[in-house]
Amino acid sequence: MTTTEHAIDPSSIVVAADGSDDADRAIDWAAAQAFLERRPLVVLTAVGIAGVPAVTWAGMGAAYAYQPDDLLTHGRASADAGRDRAEHLHPGLAVTTAVQVGDPRQVLVDLSRQVHLVVMGSRGRGLFRSKVLGSVSASVSRDAACPVVVCRPGTEDRAPGAGAGILVGADGTPESLPVLEHAFRLASLRDLPLTVMHCVWEQPGPTEEHRLLLAESIAGIRSAYPEVAVELRLASGLAEEALAADSARWDAVVVGRHPVDTLLRLVTGAVATTVVERAHTTVAVVPQADPSC
């Protein structure tokens, strides 16, 4: 059930809204990205669980029972407020709203199969705070078919462009090219420098061979974005720790994740989830190419 009369445009950026400060942060980021990419923006609210006649929330010393109609009313209000916020920030931006009944995790994962990008905050409020919505960002970024951006708290007071730029984790494999492409495009659109980091956890640590591999892996994509200032960086230790460390200084961190139906996702999925949970800046989780294709 949605408030839109037509199917969502597959070129759209979808941002999750629930009226919280975290959701507002995500709306601000998504609206700016949609404006820069000249894409339509859909402000989506997922409410309740389909088939459940009422949801009860105990808070502030009282219990409140929300009926389905109440959930839809609150959902529409959140989506409308998010649309108004996006339109105010970027007049002329094509913004529509949608309200869907169901588990927010499943709603967003399902939509990820048919849209360009999903953007969300890392926490929620009211009915969906902590135990439910607290796990949504991790679940969606782990299972989505398209890139997912999670707008973490930590850099709200910083002026645009005042950070160190974009940080992307790379392993030098062909499968990581979609991750690098996403990072280069993000840096180009936002006029930010890009740092490409390769982490080496085995001894004796990073070598000149690793640096050459990293340089070769980005050569083709680097030539497509000559306007982006690029720094190559080698780090010792676990990738998730290196990417999350001192994350507040970055405008965004980009990390890859193997496709959901491959065994390698158990490794890179854990890395991405850890970065999403620990970072103090915006995190983009990008599905890598399927190595079997």
Describe the fold and architecture.
It comes from Nocardioides simplex. With 293 residues, the chain is an alpha/beta fold. The protein has 2 domains: 13-151, 3-Layer(aba) Sandwich (Rossmann fold); 166-287, HUPs (Rossmann fold, 3-Layer(aba) Sandwich), CATH 3.40.50.620. It is built from 8 helices and 12 strands. It has helices spanning 21-37, 68-89, 104-112, 136-143, 177-189, 208-224, 239-244, 265-278; strands spanning 13-16, 41-47, 55-59, 62-66, 95-101, 117-121, 148-151, 166-169, 194-200, 230-236, 252-257, 282-287. The strands form 2 sheets. The chain has a 10-stranded mixed β-sheet with strand order 5-2-1-6-7-12-11-8-9-10, with helices on both faces. α3 (104-112) runs parallel beside α4 and α4 packs antiparallel against α8.
Key terms for this structure?
293 residues; alpha/beta; Rossmann fold; ten-stranded mixed sheet; disordered N terminus; Universal stress protein family; Universal_stress_UspA
